[in-house]
Amino acid sequence: MPLIELAKAAGQTDQSRYSAVIGVPVHNEERYIARSLRLLDRQIDPTDDFAIVLLLNNCTDGTLAVLHALASSLRRDVYFSDIELPKSLAHAGMARKLAMDAAAQLTAPHGIVLTTDADAIVAEDWLAMTRLHIANGADAVSGFVRHNPAEKAEWPDALKDRTDLECHYEDLLAELYALLDPRPHDPWPNHTITLGASLAATLEAYRTCGGIPPVPCGEDRAFIAALERIDARVRFPRDVEAFTSSRLSGHADGGMAATLRARAGDPSLPCDPLLEPVAMACKRAEWRRSLRAIWPAPLPAGWSQTLKIIPTRLKDLWAAPGFGQAWQGIEAASPELERRCLTLDQLRGELQCLEPLVARLRLQQAGRQEAARPAAQTARPSPGYVDRAASVAAKAAASAIASPLADAPVASAATTTP
Fold first, then answer.
1. Which of 137, 158, 186, 222 could bridge across to 213 with cysteines, CB 3.0–4.6 Å?
2. pLDDT over 80 at 244, yes or no
């Protein structure tokens, strides 16, 4: 199919509306865009009704030429815009916002807006599984994103070991939160990862929360925070899979590549603040569960002393229109919930506490989990979706990783203009 220019499509009164649209920000990705676009174009989709939007921003390489060379082999409608952002706005947050806002304009009223990265690899059922979780009641989905193993293999050994340790700690924290503060809309197994390589929301949730915040970096976490602030049911499933670029060279200031380079160069840098000490994680989960159970009734006076927030301030925070906004305000205001970064040595020490704690809590709740699991599986609305084993989930992704750039198209001079 030919590429469709967004500017021309916007002026058409009979403009198509799709049940899902994927918005992708693109900046100088001539080497990777063909691989990523092919994986999106060939998504398994039970509705066979989706489109792709590519927002090329400040590209100075041959990305657009590669797209035109690829166009004849595409099955789906692919819209594109090639723009030049002013220097003050030429960052990841604005680019993703523009890509997703454009995708939202093409989305049907009850549809889904998704995003990934132009150099990411998504599983062949990435869209189908996202649809499934939305059908099951989620308002938004933050997929399970891992490092590209082919690129990770090129890292220094110390960086690989550190990353594996942090990921192990992150997995255990996710299970700890699920055990101490279970949320019906996001049951275990889940995770705590929020990356732009795999995000989705219903059109209604996207517009209600204000969409992607146009911040220079960290727009992915800011987006999930905006959704949770309006009490959207955000699901963090492990079966919506993507692999993020794990290159040590990258475009975005403060992005993944910059973080990896910094950690490779200085192993003493602290861990992500979300990898918090075990005692703090337990406190956060238990207080969140307790406060959620109270909401929206008046908050008992004792909480002011517990949270170390003056009563008048706490009363104002508790008067928020939803629990999500109230909790975020409390987290920000309470010195008892302030996050502090662990060093790598401290994280190793915390791990010695976290592993047995999770194992003990897991055993304590095993009976209830086993009793609940058959009912949850019976209620799962699987007709129309791909029912596959976990080992098959990332088949296309694994193939792409094995030979990431084997068949990228070669752009000719004839394909450099629309």
1. 222
2. yes
